[in-house]
Amino acid sequence: MPDLQDLKQRIPLLDYLRQRHWTARPTANRREFVGLCPFHRESRPSFYVNPRKNLFYCHGCGRGGDLIRFVEWSQRLSFRQSLDFLQRHIAAAAGLADVLRPTAAFYELQLHRHPEAVQYLAARGLHDATLIAELGIGYAPGGNLRGHLMAQGYPFEQLLGSGLIDRQGRDAFCRRVVFPCRQQNQIVNFYGRSIGAAFAHRLLPRSKGGLFAWESVSAYPTVILVEGLFDLAVLWQTGFRNVTCALGTHVTPAQWAQLSDAPSRAVSIVFDQDENGAGQRAAQQLARRLENAGMAGYIVQLPRGQDPNSYFVAGATAADFTACLERARRP
Q1: How would you classify the pairing of strands 138-140 and 176-183?
Q2: pTM above the 0.70 mark?
Q3: Residue 81 forms part of a structural domain
Q4: Under a CB-based contact definition with an 8 Å cutoff, are residues 100 and 190 in contact?
Q5: Is residue 237 exposed (0-12), middle (13-18) or buried (19+ Cβ within 10 Å)?
Q6: What are phi and psi of 78, to 5 degrees?
Q7: Which residues touch 178 (CB under 8 Å, ≥6 apart)?
Q8: Would the CA dihedral through 241, 242, 248, 249 be positive or negative?
Q9: CATH of the domain at 19
Q10: pLDDT digits over 210-254, tens only?
């Protein structure tokens, strides 16, 4: 039988729930989180989680306990089956992280061996070599990832299962600039941006999604939220470090839980100024949601047709962007 305390410590209950899209807010004393109970229907949150003790309790249905007890009830498993379930969960996460780390290192090495990738970054306004290294940006030229990883002992089926290659052994991110996406300092996915004619955006379908570098802004009372990683990169390069990226306009339940962990936080939403207005409609909806949760949501207007990346590529300065932030309005 596995060490039960070690098992529970390796999978914090709050993290496990957030991965399953449980939305919560901190309580007044900030020692617990509360949200709707996963076990019964309710309109008022009564399900509490204590991250320090790694325990939960629902005042509505009376269920409570630790991570193992939660798995027993949520998955309808026996105690022994729950332990097996959690061990498979740990193994799957460890196996994926194990192959994503050397893949990220390989892509980083390829970046400076292929002038077209460096030129593409320059065209997108990224020229700070230190920042490029900090973000771990790389390049997938295609054709050699499979051989590189299999030479290091990774079997074909593992690479196929991760989504890094297809059945023919082709690199999923062929001819793409690649950003590693992280959660808790662990690579959980890649975002690839095509530099050719292929579809622009790509993520690993079998990997966890999540925000890029979200932890870097968790201590900030004000946060700038953007759509894309190139938006984030140019803002970091310009000195705005309190920036994070949702990888689109939709904020997932896990992202919302992290965003709302400071009730007094102010969020400046700088979504794309799309011609069809989609970005601004999404910004309006998110800002209202923030306001309803007791936070301050600001909608930042850029010139028509611009996003933060293109705005700086077009010649904007830090002072120009600061002026946009200062003109932001609440919904």
Answers
A1: antiparallel
A2: yes
A3: no
A4: yes
A5: middle
A6: -75, 170
A7: 104, 107, 137, 138, 139, 140, 190, 191, 192, 193
A8: negative
A9: 3.90.580.10
A10: 544 445 677 788 999 999 999 999 999 999 999 988 888 888 766
